[in-house]
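Page 37, continued from 36.
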């Protein structure tokens, strides 16, 4: 993989909500001994014990990388908490550990404007597992990011501080622009071959990012140039919470789906107008990364259970994805939950994802859709590994210069 990527125009590590941060180092995690709740003499017996932050020792110190060291990327979204730990392998990497859990951090956020106590507790429990994994691995550099739920919530910054205190994980609330950039960096290699422009999209829990890119025809492995982008505050959680769950009859389900598509299309309208000329190109391409597209791809393949190796990199006819979306929109929640690869966790959210996908296909009518089971986490890993390689090259160049420099002359009095 190429180590170049679109420039991040906002690299200062500010504390403003939604601001882009250039920080890449978290901490090395050392979890303290935990009391056994079964012991009657354990502190706090009979009530939940308060979490204690692990002891921290800084990682990412200025030192040369050693064999076996790993890098980590954590993505805390509106619906999921995902961790990826990997070791460099040439110009790519090999995953050595991973974690993913549906935490529904943004549940109810669209109506209350705040993260709920229950959602924060679920998320903290997942992040504690991530902290344990990071402690056990020889992690050199890590970056942990939070996206739309923490950007929008009135108590998002307070929650980030609580996460730091209780787990030791330092989360950056990244901007929508950086979220889009990282998604492109993580999955662009799966773009279908061609000469025309392409759109890469990421349907999240609380927002959707659309990016118009210009791939390098001479070197497809290089990260494409970003021409335009837009983020809208509609993801599978936020759209579901806003429209509601009135699914008593097929007619009600159809009307609900139509409202979802109309609401998303209205938000996409400025971007759609800007890219209208590019959309008329005869060889446009489309690549999606999200639980929505991987779930629909699994249904398209009629998989009995999810198989990443079958889905990641798959090219699917856009018409087939529309047909599956329309069929799901008319099913009852029970019928959707009974389908393989959907289940109870996604049954009430997949319809919103389908509505967002159809709105994207309306503004960018590609004949085929590429499917990526990769995105922000992979983008983070590639970004920090590329930065390490650049630092190593700079250090070696400086050492060569110093080694080749003539000895200093000493004047005689």
């Amino acid at each position: 993989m190429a180590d170049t990527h679109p420039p991040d125009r906002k690299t200062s590590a500010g504390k403003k909500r939604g601001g882009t941060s250039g920080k890449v180092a978290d901490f090395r995690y050392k979890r303290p001994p935990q009391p056994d709740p079964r012991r009657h003499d354990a502190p706090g017996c009979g009530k939940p014990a308060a979490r204690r932050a692990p002891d921290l020792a800084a990682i990412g110190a200025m030192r040369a990388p050693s064999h076996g060291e790993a890098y980590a990327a954590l993505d805390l979204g509106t619906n999921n908490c995902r961790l990826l730990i990997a070791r460099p392998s040439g110009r790519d990497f090999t995953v050595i550990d991973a974690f993913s859990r549906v935490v529904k951090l943004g549940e109810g956020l669209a109506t209350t404007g705040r993260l709920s106590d229950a959602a924060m507790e679920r998320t903290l429990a997942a992040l504690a597992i991530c902290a344990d994994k990071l402690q056990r691995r020889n992690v050199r550099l890590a970056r942990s990011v939070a996206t739309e739920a923490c950007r929008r919530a009135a108590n998002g910054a307070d929650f980030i501080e609580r996460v730091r205190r209780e787990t030791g994980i330092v989360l950056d609330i990244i901007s929508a622009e950086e979220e889009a950039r990282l998604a492109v960096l993580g999955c662009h290699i799966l773009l279908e071959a061609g000469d025309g422009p392409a759109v890469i999209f990421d349907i999240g829990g609380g927002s959707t990012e659309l990016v118009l890119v210009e791939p390098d025809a001479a070197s497809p492995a290089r990260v494409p140039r970003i021409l335009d982008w837009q983020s809208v505050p509609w993801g599978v959680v936020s759209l579901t919470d806003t429209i509601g769950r009135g699914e008593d009859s097929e007619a009600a389900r159809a009307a609900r789906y139509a409202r979802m598509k109309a609401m998303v299309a209205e938000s996409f309208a400025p971007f759609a107008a800007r890219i209208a000329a590019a959309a008329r190109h005869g060889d446009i391409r489309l690549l999606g990364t999200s639980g929505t597209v991987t779930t629909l791809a699994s249904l398209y393949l009629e998989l009995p259970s999810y198989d990443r190796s079958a889905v990641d990199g798959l090219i699917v006819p856009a018409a087939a994805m529309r047909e599956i979306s329309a069929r799901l929109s008319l099913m009852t929640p029970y019928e959707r939950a009974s389908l393989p690869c959907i289940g109870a966790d996604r049954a009430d959210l997949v319809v919103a994802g389908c509505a967002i996908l159809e709105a994207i296909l309306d503004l960018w009518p590609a004949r085929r859709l590429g499917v990526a089971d990769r995105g922000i986490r992979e983008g983070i890993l590639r970004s920090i590994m590329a930065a390490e390689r650049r630092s190593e090259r700079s250090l070696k160049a400086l050492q060569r210069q110093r080694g080749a420099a003539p000895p200093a002359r000493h004047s005689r009095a």
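DSSP finds 15 helices and 13 strands in the chain. Flag for discussion at group meeting. Confidence is low (pLDDT under 50) at residues 1-49, 55-64.
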